[in-house]
Amino acid sequence: MADLSIPEGGFWPAPEIPQPNIYPMEWRVETGKLAAIYEKSKRTVWNPADLPWDGLDPGDFTVEQRLGIMYWFSVLANFDASGPAVFARATIQAFEKHEEDPVRKCFFSITRDEMNHEECCQRTIARLWPGGPLDWVPATDLERAAHNNIGWLYHNGGRYWTGYSGAVGKYSLPVLFTSFMMGEMAASTLFRGMATGTEHPVFSEMFHRIGRDESRHLQICMTILENEWPGLTDDTRSLITRQLRAGFVFLSMILWEPPGGFWELPPYFLHNHRVLMDHARDAGLGVLSYEEQAENWRVAMARIRAIVERWGIEFPAIPELDIEGVEVDFLDPEDIIPVF
Ligand SMILES: [Fe+2]
Ligand SMILES: [Fe+2]
Q1: If you measure from the C-alpha of residue 210 to the centroid of ligand 2, how many angstroms do you get, rounded to a whole number?
Q2: Bridge partners of 323?
Q3: Which candidate, 202, 204, 194, 206, places its Cα nearest to that of 53?
Q4: Which of 72, 131, 153, 321 could form a disulfide with 135 if both were Cys (CB 3.0 to 4.6 A apart)?
Q5: How far is CA 132 from CA 125, 136, 138, 267, in A?
Q6: Spacing, Cα 185 to ligand 1 middle (Å)
Q7: Could you tell me the pTM of the whole model?
Q8: Residue 39 C-alpha to ligand 2 middle, in angstroms?
Q9: Domain ranges in the chain?
Q10: Is 271 exposed, middle or buried (0-12, 13-18, 19+ CB in 10 A)?
Q11: How far is the CA of 176 from the centre of ligand 1 (A)?
Q12: pLDDT digits (tens, 9 = 90+) for 260-270
């Protein structure tokens, strides 16, 4: 063994690394519960390719029904398929801010799960409407309406992404995670409802599995927030109130129907959206009725309200669902951060 080289006067200290930076490496564990959830997420991972796809036969549906299902999954993809990129960015940020190791790992596991949810949108659309969401040529008025609505939807998805990309570094963990928590609450509510509503074995298994993932995501968000909420300032509290209203406005597109305040849509959008959703409903996808959706959303909102009010965060007014609270006026894309 060669002798060590030790300089006279001792080793030179390495330069301090300017932060934020992912270095120096360390694996601090402060929240055992998060580490346990991460372990569970690895054991319960599933493969969308293994769903019984042979049982999803385009011939079992009318053209309108196939179009309706494709439309619903295109709307879902506006949310679920932004998940991988949104959480990948949050993961990088958690590394740069040296969050404890289980936080980074849990973000990564959400990224992994969301990639599966995106794959479900992709595979369903590929089977029932090749070229969908947008790379196909519509031939009827109904098809033109669907194609055009999807284009407008993704215009808004694009505005959301620009806002999120600009805002993610500015928000502290509790602000970011209250919004994520709302998204996960919405997602678990949606998929629980769809899983009971659908008549189709492929969609039933898909929605059950996604719903289970979303419940785990909700658990992750809640665990992180229990650590973060005690240190809230009043400024952060009122920012969170705004974010909750923003979450409602954004997520209503898939949970219910889009209210004003963020969405840039042509005047005919909502009417055609309803027609297309009716075709998806008619196909046995499990899309709940307008009233059932509103009731589910109201219940989810009441849960979120009970959680945040424990920490002195006021709930925004949601007049669309007869929920009273603090008036929140204008919302711009940077206010919108929830994902599924
Ligand atoms: Fe999720
Ligand atoms: Fe998801």
Answers
A1: 7
A2: 318
A3: 202
A4: 131
A5: 6, 6, 11, 24
A6: 9
A7: 0.94
A8: 19
A9: 32-39+49-321
A10: exposed
A11: 14
A12: 888 999 999 99
